[in-house]
Amino acid sequence: MEASTLSRSLASFSFSPRFCIAQPKRNPLSLATRIPFLHHCRHFRSQTPPFSVPHSLPEQITNNAPETSPAPSPPPLLANWTPPRTLWRGISALILAGQVIHRALTFRVHRRNTLQQLDRVGPRSLGVCLLTSAFVGMAFTIQFVREFTRLGLQRSVGGVLALAFARELSPVVTSVVVAGRVGSAFAAELGTMQVSEQTDTLRILGAHPVDYLVTPRVIACAIALPFLTLFCFTIGLASSALLADAVFGVSIDIILESARRALRPWDLISAMIKSQVFGVIISVVSCAWGVTTLGGAKGVGESTTSAVVISLVSIFIADFALSYCFFQGAGDSLKHANG
Description:
Strand content: under 5%
Number of strands: 0
C-alpha cells in the first residue's frame, strides 16, 4: 500500500505542470534560427517576445534604426538613345568603302568573281541604258530645237545638246538606270545571304565576305559605268541629230559640226569621272544595305528599296558637288559652237 502511494507521488512530481520549471525552457527565437520557415509564421511572430534577442546574433541585426539608402544617380545623357538605322548604315557604308579601297590597293581581289560582275554590270546593262538615253535625247531635242529655230540659232543646237549630254544627262541617266537594275540586285542578293547566314558560312570556309562579295562588285561598277556613259552619250547625240533633221529641218552636218566646236576633252573626261564616282556610290550603298539586312524576307525587301532610294539621292548630291567643282569657271563653250 505504501509502495503504491510512493510511486503515485513520484509520478505526480515528474509530470505535474507545476514542476516543469525543472526542465530548461527553450528560447523560441533560437528555434527560429534553426528552422528558417518559422519566421514567416504569423502565430510564431505573435508568440515571440519583442525584445528577446540572443547574444549569438550579429550586432547589426540588433540595430533597429532605419538605414539611409543613397540617392539614385541620374542616368547618363544618351543611355536610352538608339541611333537611327540609316545613320549606322551610313557609317557601315563608309567603313565598307575603306575596306574595299584597302583591298583594292593591296590586290586582294577575287578575279573570277570580278569578271562575272563586270559582265553583269557592263554588257547586260548596255541595252536598257542605250534605249533610255535615246529617248531622253529625243525628248530633250523637242524642247530645245524648236525654240532655238525660232530665234535663228540653228548652229547652236548641236553645241547645246552635246554639252548637256556630256556634262549632265549621260552620266546621270546611266547611273540612274544602273542603280535601278544592278544596285537593287546587289542589295537583294547580299541581304538574302545575310539573312540565311551564308556570309557566316563564307567566314567558316576561310573566305572573307568583303573580298569575295563586295570588292568585285565595287570594282565592276567603277570600271563599267564610264564606258556605258560614253555609249549613252553617242546614242543620245545621234538620236537627237536624227530627230532634229527629220522633224525640224536642222541638218545633221550642222548639228555635228556645232557639237564638235563646243565640246572640249575635259567635258568627256569629267563625264567619265562623274560616272565612276556614281558607280562607286551605287555599289557601296547597295552592298552596305545588303549586309546589314535584318528581319527575314521583309527586311530584304526594305533593304532593297532603301538602297535604291539612298543611291539615287546620293547620285544627285554628288552630281551637284562635282559640277560645281568641274565647271565653275566655264562659260565660253557656245562661242565656238557658232563658228
